[in-house]
Structure formats: structure tokens, C-alpha cells
Amino acid sequence: MATFYVPSTNLIGAGCVNEIGGYVKDLGYNKALLVTDKFIESSDILPKVVAPLKEAGVEFVIFSDVDANPTCKNVMDGLAVLKDNDCDFIISLGGGSPQDCASCISVLATNGGKPQDYEGLHKSSEKGLPVVAINTTAGTSAELTINYVITDEERKVKMVMVDKNSLALISVNDPELMVSKPAALTAATGMDAMTHAVEALVTPGAYGVTKKLSMGAIELIKEFLPRAVKDGFDIEARTGMVDAIFLGGMAFNNAGLGYVHSMAHQLGAVYNLPHGVCCAMLLPIIERENAKRVPAAFRDVAKALGLNPEGKTDEECAAYAIAEIEKLSETVGIPKKLTELNIKEEDFDFEYLSKNAMIDACAPGNPFTPTLEETIAFYKELF
Fold it and tell me: What are the E-state strand segments in the chain?
């Protein structure tokens, strides 16, 4: 038996943000905490969202102190604003950072405690405060998943929470909110989406429905990500990427992820690097190793990336898939080595990051369990 998690209402397509007022008003709550970040607060995105809310008479207070890798302090500060203003639901606006921060605020608002209490799988007992999740990037799928990630700034660890009680009530994916995003951010979030789809396809947790979702996401990303990076105002490409993240999000939400995410989380926590860039750099490294253990799983990856697998061996399919992934990363301008991000090997704590990667909540989803020595070797390949 499989359990399939997805928000009960999902608005998808160009202009759908204009319809949110009625949907939010119908929920019957009094005042929202609108969780976003400083970039969106000062951009042309916020007015596009605020206008239909005001028109529908939805009350809200804005909380925008959310870092690129949201921290425990961000969450506790947002929770305080929520309580001080008697907010009874949450609207999250942004990419993965505001979405994750909002998810954690939601859970703490009804369950109490601190973010560290909920690291791991399904640690909360009560349904979180209702969330309307409005996405602005084509990458994380955080608006429709039961996963969220918060950085413990004291331990310098990204805590992964997988919690059905954090699932949003409504998700909103309007490609018109994404057109102004810069090329580098588009590339990074797009490769995060590719990582979701590939990991969800090769994980032992994959099953019929999630496999088809993953393959659909991979096909769309290969076709539309280079176009979206080249021209952010290509609405067809942006729409294709919205479709991709929705498919991929449903896939990994219900099948799981793997060691790419386990290792990428540590890089983001310690060095504050873009999550999608970390995933893209690690993806071929880990999938080469996965292909040695489960080569048959890569037939579907290769097929989604354009290969006719008929007459090809599993190993040939895996080699093709990994080469295509590397080619896509290069096409959209992802760095190949950590030195390009000003990270020096002599300053890199291989053992600390590797030990944390091994206990990350995404690690059990990988087709095999790497040792400490293997994990250290994977990180060394980034130099």
C-alpha cells in the first residue's frame, strides 16, 4: 500500500494568482501571517499577490525576515509576529526559503516547542496552522510537499523535517510570478527540480504512479529549463517548468529522495550555498555510484532524457542519463567545482559534513548506504 500526499486545492497556470482572493476568503479565517523574504517584499511580485487579497478583504501582516537558508531564529521571530497579531492562518510567498519557514511556523503554532523538536519523520502530533502556499520559483516544490528544511545555526546543520501535518491547504503556481527571476536562480532551482525527479525515480521507494510523475518532470525540465534560463520572459518555458515542479514535487513527496540531498543540505548549512547549485554539482557523482548498484533504475531516467532504451544495456542507459544531466548543468551555467564558489579544500571539514550527511533524513531513500569514507570521497570530487 502507498499513501499519496498532495494539497487539497492546487491553482496552476498563468494568471492564477489573480484568483486567490476568493479561495483564501472562502477558508473563513480572520488574519494571515504573510511569510516572504526581503527580495520579494521589495520586488514587483508582492503587489501582484497583495492586490487580489485586498480586493477580497483578506487581512494580513507581513513577515519578511527570512534568510536564503531559513534558520531557527527566522522561524521563532515569525512565530512571535504571528502570535502578537493574532493570526489564525499563514500565506507563504516565495521559493523554498519562505515556504519552509512558513511550514515550520505552522507546525510550531499548534504543537509548541522549537524547530529542533521536529527534525526527522512525522514528529508533530497536531495538524499545523492552515497554509496557503504561493510559489515564485520553479524548483523546490516546497509549496506542495510534506518536507521542509530549517538550518540550526548553532550546530550548522540543515534539519530535514518530513511531516504530513505541515502540508499546505492550497498551493499556487503562477508562471507569471517567475518571469523576473534572474538566470542563475532559474538555473539553480531548475536543477534542484531535476534532482528531485531523478532521485525519486531511482529510490527504492518509487512505485508506478511516482515513476510516471518523475519521468514527466524530467522530460519537461530537459526541454524547458534552458529556455527559461536564456529568456526569463518566455512564458511557455516558465509554464513548462511549473508543470515540471508540480509533477516532480508529487513524485518525491511520496517516493522520497536520496543522498544527493543529504550531502547538499550540509553544504548549504555550513557554507550558505544555493541549494540547487549544490544538488546539481553532486547529482552526477552520486548517480554514478547508484548506477553501479541499481543500473536498471536508470532505463527510465535515460528514456525521459531522450534515449530509446530498446537494445541498450542498463549500463549504457545509465551512462547516457548521467552524461545528459552533466550536459544540462553546463548548458544552464552551473559551476562544476566548489572552488568556483570560493570554497577552499584546505578549509573544508570533510568529516563533519560527511557524518551529518549520513544521518540526514533523506539518506535512507538512497539505493545504497555510503560509508563515511565513501561520503568523504564524494565531497572530494567537488574539488
Answer: 9-12, 31-35, 59-63, 89-94, 120-121, 131-135, 147-152, 157-162, 170-173
Residue pointed to by grid coordinates 519578511: 64
Tens digits of residue pLDDT in 60-81? 999 999 999 999 999 999 999 9
Per the CB < 8 A criterion, the answer to whether 20 and 79 are in contact is: no
Give the residue among 112, 162, 114 at the shortest CA–CA distance from 142: 162
Tell me the three cell numbers of residue 225. 529549463
Helix ranges (H only) for 148-305 are 183-202, 208-230, 235-255, 259-271, 275-293, 298-304
Query: Torsion-angle region of residue 286: left (phi > 0), alpha (psi -120 to 50) or beta?
Result: alpha
- SS3 for 231? coil
Q: Is there a contact between 322 and 295 (Cβ–Cβ < 8 Å)?
A: no
207 has pLDDT over 90: yes
Task: Give 229's contacts (C-beta < 8 A, 6+ positions apart).
Answer: 183, 186, 187, 190, 331, 332, 333
Contact 148, 161 (CB under 8 A): yes
Q: Is 317 exposed, middle or buried (0-12, 13-18, 19+ CB in 10 A)?
A: buried
Bridge partners (DSSP) listed for residue 63: 35
Please say if the pLDDT value at position 1 is more than 90: no
- Three-state DSSP class for 10? strand
Write down the residue that cell numbers 476568493 correspond to. 22
Q: pTM value?
A: 0.96
Q: For residue 25, give the H/E element and its range.
A: helix 20-26
Pairing state between β 170-173 and 131-135: parallel
Residues 106 and 129 sit within 8 Å (Cβ to Cβ):
yes
Structure confidence at residue 166 (pLDDT): 98
Q: Give bridge partners of residue 10 from the DSSP assignment.
A: 171
Which DSSP helix (H) or strand (E) runs through 378?
A: helix 372-380
CA 210/CA 5 separation, integer angstroms: 11
pLDDT of 346: 94
CA distance 186 to 137: 7
Per-residue b or e along 272-286, where b marks 16 or more CB atoms closer than 10 Å to that residue's CB: ebbbbbbbbbbbbbb
Is residue 338 a contact partner of residue 350, using CB atoms and an 8 Å limit? no
